[in-house]
Design goal:
alpha/beta; 4-stranded antiparallel β-sheet; membrane; 8 helices; globular; Rossmann fold; 24% strand; binds adenosine-5'-triphosphate
């Protein structure tokens, strides 16, 4: 029996971007996802919370086919992810931007080249050096850097930037891809609280401006309350809470991390 607690959210009229139903994924005897149902609509900013090992990353990885389900159905933009192959899968992945916990920049390359990588899906052939990228792509990359406040660092090596700055470059690279859905897996967990708040502000402000749909795994309750408009909490591979952020408070959210039974829908 599930303890799933769902309720209508703000964007009921908006089209579904992510539709997960009865998702099960096991590793040996571990049920990382134990029958997850979740629909996320265009423009929602979803915080995915839950204790370590509750299945957040496993769920996220199913959405761009990095994981294959044991059973259940996953649709992203109406495409059955597990069945997508070849050109269909590449087209789907181009619409899904990812922000990684560890930034995943190429440290010896310039900041600008790292951002340009985000546009690789639409630029054919290998690129060696900034000058070999089309001028329009370079200009677009500079605009993305400007939006995260780093245009003046474009020609520095990425490895010379601080952690918070590197994550802003990661956000600019994601923007360069021109995605419609953004998956962010603990994007600020390696940053100090002030820097984390700053990076969350950059990420969510831009996604809101561009009307992108976001699913962001987080451990920090205050950040979820401050930036998301919906919180989904997992426990033992199941959705145990699904609420508009405006209807939540820190105490209730913190209970997700308690060792006591999962929060009820009340
Ligand atoms: N590739 C894998 N091989 C074996 N077990 C895995 C694998 N990926 C995840 N698991 C297991 O599945 C469960 C869920 O892991 P997952 O990484 O999805 O949790 P999480 O909620 O994202 O945790 P965290 O907050 O620590 O990142 C855990 O018990 C984990 O050990």
């Amino acid at each position: 029996m599930t303890t799933q607690a769902t309720e209508p959210h703000t964007q009921v009229e908006a089209p579904a971007v992510v539709e997960v139903s009865a998702l099960v994924k096991t590793y040996g005897g571990i049920r990382a996802c134990d029958g997850i149902d979740l629909t996320v609509r265009k423009g929602e900013l979803v915080g995915l919370l839950g204790r370590s090992g509750s299945g957040k990353s496993t769920l996220l990885r199913h959405l761009n086919a990095l994981n294959r389900p044991d059973s259940g159905q996953i649709k992203v933009f109406g495409v059955e992810v597990a069945a997508a192959r070849g050109a269909e899968l590449r087209a789907l992945r181009r619409r899904v931007g990812v922000v990684f916990q560890q930034f995943n920049l190429i440290g010896r390359l310039s900041v600008l080249e790292n951002v340009l990588v985000g546009g690789l899906g639409r630029v054919k052939g290998p690129r060696y050096g900034i000058i070999t990228w089309p001028r329009a792509e370079r200009q677009a990359a500079l605009v993305c850097l400007d939006r995260v406040g780093l245009a003046d660092r474009a020609y520095e090596r990425a490895q010379n930037l601080s952690g918070g700055q590197q994550q802003r470059v990661g956000i600019a690279r994601m923007l360069m891809q021109q995605p419609e859905l953004v998956l962010a897996d603990e994007p600020v967990s390696s940053l100090d609280p002030e820097t984390a708040a700053n990076v969350m502000d950059v990420l969510f402000r831009i996604c809101l401006e561009d009307q992108l749909t976001v699913i962001c795994t987080l451990h920090q309750v205050d950040l979820a309350l401050g930036w998301t408009n919906r919180v989904v909490a997992l426990r033992d591979g199941l959705v145990v809470l699904d609420r508009l952020t405006a209807k939540l408070d820190a105490e209730r959210l913190t209970r997700i991390y308690a060792t006591e039974p999962a929060p009820s829908s009340a």
